[in-house]
C-alpha cells in the first residue's frame, strides 16, 4: 500500500517546464520563419511547447528605445534562458543580466563588439551563433560592382545603434578603393530617419546601394524595396530573406539554419552546460541569391557570368 502511494505521489510531481524568452530587435513578421525554424529544432530535440517548454516572444520592431522595457517584461516572467536576435537586443540583454543564459543568433562580430571574450571561450553568460566570416561584407561590395560595373558611388545604409554596423562599414571602406568606388555612408537610427535618408539618396544619386545587415532594415524592407524600384537603384542585402521578399540580391548565411542550430544551444544549457564553456559557432556556407523579377523592375540585366555564380535564382 505504501509503495502504491509513493508511486502515485511521484506520478503527480509536475515536470519541469522551461521558459524561453525569444527576444528580437526586429518584428514578428520578419522573424516568423526564423521562429518556425527554432521551434522545429526544439521539436527534433524533444521539446514540445506547452509540455516541457514555453516560448515568450518580444519584438522591438527596430526601435532601440523599447529594448529595456521589453527585457523588463521577460525578466518579470522569470525566463530560464534568452534567445536573442539582433546585436542591439543582444547588447541590451547582456547589460540587463549577467546570470540568465543568452543564446545570440546571427551576431556578425561578437568578439569585435565586446559581447564575448573569444569564439572558442565566450566567457560570461553569452554564447550562440555568429553569421560573420572574414570577407563576407566585402564580398557584397564585389558582387554589387560585378552587377553594376558603372557604379562609381555606392550608398551604404547602416544603423549606428547596432555596434557591428560601424565595424562592417570600416571593412567596406578599406576595400572600396580597390573597386574604384566612393562610398556614401548613411546612418539610420530608427524608422523616423528612413524617409530623410531616401531624400538624400535621391539628391546624391549613387549608382548602387549596399544595405548592412540589421533588423531595423529588415523590418522596413518594403519601404526600402519601394524606394529602390522607384529610383531604379540596384541593391544588395545581407541575407536571402530580403530577396525572397522582393529584394534584388543577397550574400550571406541561412538564418533558418542558424535558428535551428540555436535550439542545440538551448538544449545543452537546459541540461546544465554553462554558456561560458560553449564555443560560438560560425557558418560554414554562404549563399548568393538573385531575384530576376526585381532586376526586371528596375530595368537591370544581371550579367550571365554573375548569374552563373548564384546559388539560387528567384524567377
Sketch the major β-sheet.
Answer: 7 strands, mixed
What is the radius of gyration computed over CA atoms, rounded to a whole number of angstroms? 22 Å
* Fraction of residues in H or I helices: 40-55%
Give a count of the beta strands, DSSP E runs of length 2 or more: 12
Cα end-to-end separation:
71 Å
Q: What is the annotated CATH architecture of the largest domain? A: 3-Layer(aba) Sandwich
Numbering strands along the chain, what is their spatial order in the largest sheet?
7-6-8-9-10-11-12
User: Average pLDDT, to the nearest integer?
Assistant: 94
Number of domains: 2
What is the level 1 CATH name of the largest domain? Alpha Beta
CATH homologous superfamily of the largest domain - what is it? Response regulator
Broad structural category: alpha/beta
Order of helices and strands: HEHEHEHEEHEHEHEHHEHEHEHHE
Strand content: 15-25%
Question: Under CATH, the topology of the largest domain is which?
Answer: Rossmann fold
Tell me, briefly, the overall form: elongated
Summarize the SSE layout with pairings.
Elements (H helix, E strand, L loop, with lengths): L1 H11 L5 E7 L3 H17 L8 E7 L7 H10 L4 E5 L1 H10 L5 E6 L18 E5 L5 H12 L5 E6 L5 H12 L6 E6 L6 H11 L3 E4 L3 H5 L1 H11 L3 E3 L2 H5 L4 E4 L2 H16 L16 E5 H6 L6 H4 L4 E3 L1
Parallel strand pairs: 1-2, 1-3, 3-4, 4-5, 6-7, 6-8, 8-9, 9-10, 11-12
Antiparallel strand pairs: 10-11
Helix pairs in contact: 2-11, 3-4
